[in-house]
Amino acid sequence: MTAFHCAHAALPEGVRDDVLVEADGGRITSVRAAAEAPPGAVRLPGLTLPGLANAHSHAFHRALRGRTHGGAADFWSWREQMYAVAARLDPDSYLRLARAAYAEIALAGVTVVGEFHYLHHQPDGTPYADPNAMGHALVEAARQAGVRLTLLDTCYLQAAPDGTPLTGTQRRFDDGDAERWAVRVADAEAPRRGAAVHSVRACPPGAMATLADWARDADAPLHLHLSEQRRENDECLAAHGRTPAQLASDTGVLDTLATAVHATHLTTGDVALLGGSGTSACFCPTTERDLGDGIGPARALADAGAPLCLGSDSHAVVDLVEEARAVELDERLATGRRGAFTAAELLRHATAAGYASLGRPDGGTVTAGALADLTAVRLDSVRLAGAPRGDQLLAAVLYAATAADVSHVVVAGEIVVADGHHQRVDDVPGELERAVTDLFA
User: Fold this and answer.
1) CA-CA-CA-CA torsion for 44, 46, 52, 57, nearest 10 degrees?
2) Mean pLDDT over all residues of the chain?
3) CA separation (Å) from 280 to 8, 283, 293?
4) Is 262 one of the catalytic residues?
5) What's the CATH number for 52-357?
6) What is the pLDDT of residues 153-177, one digit of tens each?
7) What is the pLDDT of residue 72?
8) Nearest Cα residue to 412 out of 109, 8, 28
9) What superfamily does domain 2-50+365-422 belong to in CATH?
10) H-helix or E-strand containing 111?
């Protein structure tokens, strides 16, 4: 039994003071407000939140930070730079980079990551001796960094909706067909697995249906990039006479196990399809801003019945608090109105909804029986000095705090970050520096 005494904690009923959270076997066993700290309790300063969920990560994109942001360009030119990094990685270098990237994620308060994984084979497309060597590197990286991982093994078979074959670096993504994808995935070892249709560009309709069947049979999450770019919509309409959302619906992809990542350029009918099927929508605002993707219809999706979750995607920024407030702030830019989402809704996007999207409906909340994953945000920084207490404290944290304010992170009842220092990876900046520079050497 481990006891955590929180100065303040965001509980389902609101922010409460002096909250005692007891955990055993990786789960919360009791939660009591206005409680004294028993001897030996771990003191969590500031505001304790449920563990933050990063529902959409591409760990290898971390190597691109600072290298792709200047000059005139668009998503498609950025993609070529991303492929150049993808071509350099092998299982050993991927492990080093992902371990450092996941450690940075942990320092930002993230306790569970959904890794959208498609770097399967050698650069020429030849499988490694272990066909899942790259995925296993990610699993080991997350284990060493102390974060939960849902490995979203991705099917990527073509270069465009018209069936254009893969060339160059894209060949390392390719299993040949969905049936061979399923054979490889059957031998993958991960604490929690899911599937991913890379996009309607990368998977023909038959493969999309195969993955949808696999996810239902396995009761596993199924993610897909959806309508991130207008060009994707145009190519899908030209090839299939349907929007990407309509194609995903017709192939059985959309349902409560599914998550549509980005969901930026949607028609009114698309919004209804996602909401009516209970498909989640994962917004990645910092990446969507960086790549010029656009602003998705967050409020409309939520109103239609689509749960919203969040991801860091390209790791241009790793800050789930920023992703959460950006959902509201981008909605303000798009509509000219404030207050589309309450602070409690934004917190749910960053926590429980992300956990559920990754096949973990038992996480992302500070309640008895939930996974014992906690994130404490300090209140004594210049950003939060003078923040109000009580129920206004949650909004103050979500609108003013940054990842730099995270003080403690608890995963499965174990302290992974204490006083802003990772307890398993001694020098996170140094490891990131070495892992990234080695790729470009």
Assistant:
1) -110
2) 96
3) 30, 10, 19
4) yes
5) 3.20.20.140
6) 999 999 999 999 999 999 999 999 9
7) 66
8) 28
9) Urease, subunit C, domain 1 (2.30.40.10)
10) strand 110-117
Phi and psi angles of residue 420, each rounded to the nearest 5 degrees, phi first: 80, 10
Catalytic residue (one of 313, 319, 330, 405):
313
Identical fold, 2-50+365-422 and 52-357? no
* Interstrand relation of 406-411 and 374-377 (parallel, antiparallel or unpaired): antiparallel
- Separation in Å, CA 430 to CA 6, 85, 100: 31, 20, 9
For the stretch 340-392, pLDDT in tens is 999 999 999 999 999 999 999 999 999 999 999 999 999 999 999 999 999 89
Percent of the chain at pLDDT > 70 equals 99
Tell me if 75 sits within 8 A of 61, measured CB to CB. no
Exposure letters 121-142 (e unless 16+ CB within 10 A, then b): beeebeeeeebbbbbbbbbbbb
Instruction: Describe the strand order of the beta sheet including 414-418 as a list of residue ranges.
Output: 27-32, 14-24, 2-11, 42-50, 374-377, 406-411, 414-418, 421-422
Residue (of 349, 397, 356) closest to 376 by Cα position:
397
In this predicted model, what pLDDT tens digit does every residue of 178-217 receive, in sequence order? 999 999 999 999 999 999 999 999 999 999 999 999 999 9
Q: Is the pLDDT of residue 47 over 70?
A: yes
Q: State both tokens at 141.
A: 């990286």
Question: Residue ranges of the domains in the chain?
Answer: 2-50+365-422, 52-357
Q: How many CB atoms lie within 10 A of CB 331?
A: 22
d(Cα 376, Cα 185) in Å, to the nearest integer?
36
Active-site residue, 5 included: no
Euclidean distance between CA atoms 276 and 279, whole angstroms: 8
Q: Using an 8 Å Cβ cutoff, are 28 and 398 in contact?
A: no
Structure tokens at 108: 């930002």
Mean pLDDT of 413-432: 98
Q: What is the DSSP letter of 168?
A: G
**Residue of 8, 61, 198, 262 with catalytic role:** 262
